[in-house]
Amino acid sequence: MRLVSLVLFAIACFLVYDIYFGHNGIQKYKEVEKQLEKEQLLTLQLQQKNQDIADQINDLMQGSIAVEELARSELGLIKPNERFYRVLATDEKIRSMNIY
């Protein structure tokens, strides 16, 4: 009887070990779950980036206003007979500005 109890105890220990640390155990499940959360976050970020790019493409297809805005901000272009002023401020002045 004692031998049967010992064998059953050994089998139970093996099964518990397999449940936690086996090929498809709880530990592996938690690792995969963390990886899934990371990938889902990355997917959401990429979807937002794709949506931003699609919105920008639609804006560019709509007309010249978006093209003009991009030319002014990205390339620093100005219209003929237009003056461009750049105001440079010190760090102290920038920090003291009340921006709402």
Describe the structure.
By secondary structure, the protein is mostly helical. Helix content is 75%, strand content 0%. The protein contains 4 helices and no strands. The protein has helices at residues 2-21, 26-62, 64-75, 91-96.
Give the arrangement of secondary structure elements.
Blueprint: H1 2-21, H2 26-62, H3 64-75, H4 91-96
Flag low-confidence runs. Answer: none
Indicate the mean pLDDT: 82
Rounded to the nearest angstrom, the radius of gyration is: 32 Å
* Number of H- or I-type helical stretches: 4
The helix/strand series, from N terminus to C terminus, equals HHHH
Name the helicity range. Answer: over 70%
Keywords:
100 residues, mainly alpha, 4 helices, elongated
